[in-house]
Task: structure prediction
Amino acid sequence: MRSIIILSSFITAALAGVQLDRRGCSQNKCLKDFIASSANAATFCATFTTAAVTATTALPAYATHCSKASRVSSACSCLFTAAPSPSSSSTTSSSTKSSPASPAISSSSSSSGSTTCTCTAYSQIAPAVASCTAITLQDIAAPTNSSIDLSKLKANTVVTFAGKTTFAFTNSSKFNPMIFGGAGVTITSAPGAIIDGNGQAYWDGQGSNGGVPKPDHFIVVSKMTAGSKIQNLHIQNWPTHLFSISGCSDTTMQNLFLDNTAGDAPNARSGGLAAAHNSDGFDLGSSSNFVITDSIVYNQDDCVAVTSGNNVTVSNMYCSGGHGLSIGSVGGKSNNNVTNILFTNSQILNSTNGARIKSNFNTTGFISNITYSNILVSDISTYGIDVQQDYLNGGPTGSPSNGVIISNILFKNLTGTATASARDYYVLCGSGSCSNFVFTDVSITGGGVNSSCNYPASGCPRPY
Result:
């Protein structure tokens, strides 16, 4: 059955709207009954009085969970206007007609009990998240200081971005433009849909290191579990780091096209540097049984960086313009264990690094069972393969420490080219902190700076 949920403006008192979280409406089953049949509920609420309903038999058939008149009154107040009294019903009706309202959510219910909603305005998203299990976000323009919050999706919800999603400028480094979460949920897009992060309003060559305050992560992925998927998204022009992934398990991110190439060129604020900076594609921590696959990333920093977690697979990636496929930096954080990570069947082009593992100076941690296999690198400008234990305040010092253990590292069939400015290989381990590094069928050539490896004892890989 087709129905329309009438929403209010956030600033209009005459219509309280279905903004459940923000309006303090009690999210009980009675209210959800009214939301599911809101077209009929509008007529009922326009004439409802608490005196007229003294038993559930006087309620409409769809209000199966409304055992108390007070709950009916609350539902009507939240969805439409305050429940009218007999003497004020005509006045209230007139007031309602003259009050501005947001566009309606188009919604429908299926025989399986799922509810489909289409949102065409930002104000409709929160009620859709609270009530629907199939949500389309069509041409959403998020206002200043307004996140697209999909962190409390119902289990197995499917969210589809359609058209172009845009974001107004928000002058804050603590603001998260989008938040994803849920169990068994899918976040995807319709063909041709684009999510644009408005990076040009923020880019100044400094990224998260200073300058214009910028959202530190464009999309926070938190507590996605139970076979959740993020897939088929086209995202462009994010301000700094794109995905911050934490507290997730049994989740797959796939078929993503991430394009920050507009930030490659300098702008008036970047002092001759690329305008975009610190634009990591995927930053993953404290997550397990996680897959990132079949994706293309054009950016100016790490394509993928795993800072903590267990059993993570990164495969079939095309990474261009950034800092490569990275472990770290590790050490000095709340979680400093990185285990059982596989990077495989991927290409890294026009990047500063190919495969990189880095730990922070004078910290502790554990990095083990890391595999880079079937990786092709091309035009690498700093390090083809890089393992460093000397990072301090984000940069290398040349003096490694040994508090982070790095063991059981396999580089297999990692081949390609570096530029004249690069070292093909660079390994700088602390005393006794590295063990069991294996290089099999590894060949990177073209680097104009001598390679340097203080571990293993046999030195850097030799051409085969």
Summary: The first strand starts at residue 2 and ends at 5. The first helix runs from residue 20 to 23. Confidence is low (pLDDT under 50) at residues 1-27, 80-101. Residues 213 and 321 are 24 Å apart (CA to CA).
